Amino acid sequence: MEKFYITTAIYYVNSKPHIGSVSEAIAADVIARYKRLSNFDVFFSTGTDEHSQKIEAKAKELGIDPQKFVDEAASLWKTIFDRFNISYSRFIRTSDPDHTEVVKDFFVKMYEKGDIYLSTYEGWYCVRDETFLKDSELVEGKCPHCGGEVQRLSEDNYFFRLSKYRDDLLKFYLENPQFVEPESRYNELLNILKGGLQDISVTRKSFKFGIHVPFDEEHTIYVWYDALINYVSAIGYLTNKEMFSKYWPADLHLIGKDITRFHGIVWPAMLMSMGLPLPKKIFAHGFWNLEGMKMSKSLGNVVDPVEFAENFSKLSNITFAKSVDVLRYYLSREAIFGLDGDFRMESFFRRYNSDLANDYGNLINRTLNMLSKYRNLEVPPYSVDDEFVAFAKSKFNQYKEYMEKYALSFALDRVFEIISYLNNYIQVKEPWKLSKETGKLNVVLDTLLEGIAYVSVLLQPFMPNITAFILDEFGVENRNISEYDGQILKKNVLNLFEPIFPRLEKEKIDLDKKTEENEDNVIEISKVKYDDFAKLDLRVAKILSAKRVKNSDKLIELKVSLGKEERTIVAGIGKFYSEEGLIGKKIVIVANLEERRLMGITSQGMLLAASTSNKENLSLLTVDKDIEEGAKIS
Ligand code: MSP
Fold first, then answer.
1. pTM of structure
2. Is the CB of 9 under 6 A from ligand 1?
């Protein structure tokens, strides 16, 4: 199986995620899911960048130990990424011990090679961007990139001999014109290389929070030197050589357009110094603006993705998870990936109502209603229209081509062309006039059903929750992304269900914009009010039986006893527990959660479990004394 290693930038934790940072993780997740569903062995890493001066300053301001601050902040980021279904293989933190060791290893090796040397730094430092600046670079005494205040530095620093790698880098760029995309970003970097490179400072003396130079403890390693190395530590550079050699070099570093110089020049030079292969591609996406304006905490126009999804979920009456899917869809469809995007309420509502509620949602509703009316919900024998098959094949080829180029919005356009084809097919074939022509009506109904199933397969990377529901309802077993080659719908009888995307009349959503007085004052370690916690009905439950769910390697169907009643719970623990090993265990469940259907089975609650950060192991929460089933946990 071919491997695919994809990374996002790692995020500073002094502020909480906003729509821009989350959009990058979502795009990477869409690509990772697409690759997995296309039979690649994918490793997807994301995480947090914790050793910056602004983070130390923020912790000081709050009177918290910096390590404690980053621990809580990183956990908040991770929780939010989990809520957005970011299917990372590793959530790396620069404070992780294995990463720290790799940074030291790089530093010592590069020093021993003569690529790092001690000298004096005289110049400026922008804390907001964590960047060293020369006199000539300042604009009216401020940072040329973010307009922020700069500090004068005059201290002994270790330097990386970046200039030594200029010729090799230039040669590499000229030989690999697709190393950096889009082309405009490649050209910017090529011009920098043509202009020549200077050595860069890679340690700080006046700042303590971070990784220290092993042979000169007074020096703290510069946050960017530390952070870039995460891409190799995430895959076990020192701790798991086999995994490292399997996944390195990275196939794709996905980053924003503001950090191309570090990724396209500094990082490759560090790798050359270490004798490691360079990543295959760096793709720099654009920035999200809000209603035509730059998103900035100081302007108070930052969209909090969680609040947005929560508000939208209330407004549209769909679950939070589905609301997240709608946002993921909007972010993927609305901007051409690589260019800037404009987050606008009006376009968000238009996309929801017209693409999702009207085109996709309505196609499903109309088809199921016709199946109910004409066939009592029984699926006709396989009889898909050849013309549709040819159309779906040609659209798939285009979809695939775009997905491979990370042109996500264009790939979605192709899927929606299939959806339009199917909606139009209903108009043209007028199934309501075919009630006496069994064969013809069968073709129309089957084409629509198979068509819906197929577009849902193609939409999985973008809307994993919604499509899982549809594919479960339609009984689609093979969910791999491939050319349509006949019968994917395996159920004989379907169910009617509520519209997935209820149409919205209200054209406004309260964005809950926050005006922050101070740019950094955004991270709050969220606390739950006691009353909110008390709404959860947590109970001890005894497992009576366990059975693997057909066609799923993850799901196990459990029957549990709560003393007075029995419940069915479908849990994703199949990779970690055997059926027999579960019977008799007393576990903890959330007993008042909305019911959910998974692979056609209704799950009446959720069990609690802890998983290791690499998601390779999982342990069920149990009680440590013999407490009776149904006991309430408080
Ligand atoms: N910590 C560094 C990256 C180190 S990678 C070895 C950093 N962090 S950041 O939190 O400031 O930005 C993280 C990512 O979010 C970057 O790729 C950045 O371009 C992206 N975005 C930040 N604001 C954004 C938008 N408004 N829109 C889209 N992406 C945005 O830089």
1. 0.81
2. yes
